[in-house]
Amino acid sequence: MTEASPLNRYQLAELGSLLAEPARAAILLALMDGTTRPAGELARIAGVSPATASAHLKRLLDGGLLGLHEQGRHRYFRLANDDVAAWLEAMALPHAAHNVPITTTRDAALCRARTCYRHLAGQLGVALCEAWLQRGWLHSGSDGLSLLPAAAEALVRAGWQTGSTQQLLHLRGRGCLDWTERRLHIGGPLGVAITGAMLEAGWLRHAQRNRALLPTPDGLRRLAELGVRLEH
Question: Residue 221 CB: number of other CB atoms within 10 A?
Fold first, then answer.
């Protein structure tokens, strides 16, 4: 499933059937953080037997939603690509549009900042995208989103390594519609690289129990200097 290959009605029906089974939906959600996991772990997450999980994984592989990495006798599963992650994220939009936004303590961290596949989503991801577009650090064109030299220079001043920021200039991203904010954050290779650099710099850290990303005090201060501020 790619943007270059639009779905026909039969493919859309097949994708719907893949998500109609709660165990398969649980497997996909578990992989939304960009991790690669073995079948046994995914079976436990989905609450099904190994044999049942194996059947579900085969359907998801055949449907193009999962990718497979084989290492010796071991098999590890991941989302097929960023397009799948973006589609799964967007699937929540109709539900969000007709319901009160998530505000419970349990979900507040996910709304604030989380991984969408491997890039930054939630309030912080949207704030970063909008702030850098307004500052002219991020360019939106026909080939997607790209970082401009002024942004790389600002990131170096904020403590990032020169080499890593120069690499960002050669990557392309895309606007990914955020299901809680209903605005765009940065997806694609550029979004993945920016998020990875923030984690490496200690501006963000992974939550232990879900795909929330927790901004550190130093990270919030550094991001504020780069024009990125959370509203609350």
Answer: 12
What is this structure's pTM?
A: 0.71
For the chain, which residues score pLDDT lower than 50? 2-4, 93-105
CA–CA separation, 71 and 74 (whole Å): 5
Q: Please tell me the number of Cα atoms within 13 Å of 34 on its side-chain side.
A: 22
Whole-Å CA distances, 58 to 15, 65, 69, 71, 207: 14, 10, 13, 18, 30
Domains delineated in the chain: 9-80 (1.10.10.10), 100-225 (no CATH)
Query: Tell me: the pLDDT tens digits for 29-39?
Result: 888 877 889 99
- Tokens standing for 162? 């020169």
The DSSP 8-state label assigned to residue 212 in this structure reads: B
